[in-house]
Amino acid sequence: MAVVVTGMLIGMLLSRVFSGILAEYTGWRSVYITATVVLFVLGVILALRFPEIEPTFKGTYKELMRSILHYVRILPDLRIAALRGALTFGSFSMLWATLAFRLNSPPFHVGSDIAGAMWLVGVLGAVAANITGRVTNKYRQNTLLTAGACVLLLSWIIFGIAGSTYAGLIIGIILLDMGQQTMNVSNQSLIFKTHPEATNRINTAYMVSFFTGGAIGTLTGGIA
Fold first, then answer.
1. Are 43 and 156 in contact (CB under 8 A)?
2. Which of 222, 176, 203, 215 minimizes the C-alpha distance to 90?
3. Do residues 215 and 97 touch, judged by C-beta distance below 8 A?
């Protein structure tokens, strides 16, 4: 799981680097055209190579959706993990949704190519998911969650104090990604242990909340 989460984050980060450079030199429309082509190629690869997986749930689709809500109702750990995930990814999204605007304003005055390159810094924080995956069975989940929350909070303190310098932004970005990934992997490790036979459904509930938080964070950051 830690490997998958690391791959997901690195993909998100590197896509920003690529799109920032592409937008700077060929215009923003080329980013959408390129993304369409990449998604089409990915769809073909998945259709040809993705393994067949026999589902464990035997009911109807409606019953499947109801069962997701059932697990949300009966699992308090899932509910609190979903809230933590939403808040941490919302925090993460606030920074990345507004970073290009910050770098385009004083004292930086740089374009989308430099803003995209800042995502490379985030790759350093992505390794936190792998580190968390290795130690998740050695420490209590609450210990890792508390550590991740403290690192996340520290990143915003640094942004507030030194957000007008490249050094402050870089250190803050690394800590932000480390904190967010530590909490994400710890959250999922915690909830997946409850009902192994329903991992996909539990993950669905968690990820819906996770990305809803990210969307609200993006919206809030943009308004602010």
1. no
2. 215
3. no
In this prediction the pTM is 0.82
Contact in structure between 77 and 194 (CB atoms under 8 Å):
yes
pLDDT, tens digit only, all 224 positions of the chain: 777 777 887 888 788 788 888 888 898 899 999 999 999 999 999 999 988 888 778 888 899 999 999 999 999 999 999 999 999 999 999 998 898 888 888 899 887 777 777 777 877 766 766 676 676 667 778 888 999 999 999 999 999 999 999 999 999 998 998 898 889 888 988 898 888 888 889 999 999 999 999 999 999 999 99
Phi, psi (rounded to 5 degrees) for 61 = -65, -40
Please state at what angle helix 29-49 crosses helix 2-26, rounded to 10 degrees: 150
d(C-alpha 214, C-alpha 71), whole Å? 22
Angle at CA 45, nearest 5°, toward 44 and 46? Answer: 90
Structure tokens belonging to residue 63: 């019953």
- In 3D space, the residue among 176, 179, 197 whose CA is nearest the CA of residue 187 turns out to be 179
